[in-house]
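Researcher: Go.
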Amino acid sequence: MPETTGTTRLVGILGWPVEHSLSPRMHNAAFAALGLDWAYVALPTPPERLEEAVRGLAALGFAGVNVTTPHKLAVTALCETDVPSVNTLVVRDGRIDGSTTDAAVLDDLAAERPVVLGDGGTAVAFMCALPHARQFSRRGIWPPEIGDADLVVNATSERDAVVVDVSPGQTLVDLPYPETATAAAARRTGAHVVPGVDVLLAQGVAAFELWTGVEAPVDVMRDALGFPG
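Model: Structure:
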């Protein structure tokens, strides 16, 4: 993490747990590359302390935070927002504005017949970005039917079992990282796979620019995550 001073602007990530997050590495590399006196910290926050944590952001001088599992739905009641799932908070003049950058990776993908798997906060964000998508979850309609889909978003938490068989000609956006069994199986079949680190990079770039108002150094952020462009 970069050296902090009395003028350092703070951002971070609220989640439970957050020890595995690559976001601090990615954002701190970006701040250092641009010479910004900013720092990004992990903020492990159990669900019962979420309201206290969000209310304290302005008092502590935070410029904003990312929000991750399991808080993306609950945090909507604690900020000003017009979306049902929030992964980015921006603090300005005592106000806490919520938005989502979760689906930023879709900007470069065709999605005429999309399918979203899962029903958590990230799945909700992708359904907002893809209102014409079909949604499948174990608490709703299961197993998924993806035969005619061109884009499949795996927003489940399953890592070790293959959730769905993706075929050549289809694109899988696999949100967890590191790569899941579903993504590995899709690669073997010749399907196009967009891994979770690509999703993380896209949402991180969008969040960085919301907080700082500065164009994000995408290549630096990608290198910090340790995967090829």
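Model: The mean pLDDT is 96.
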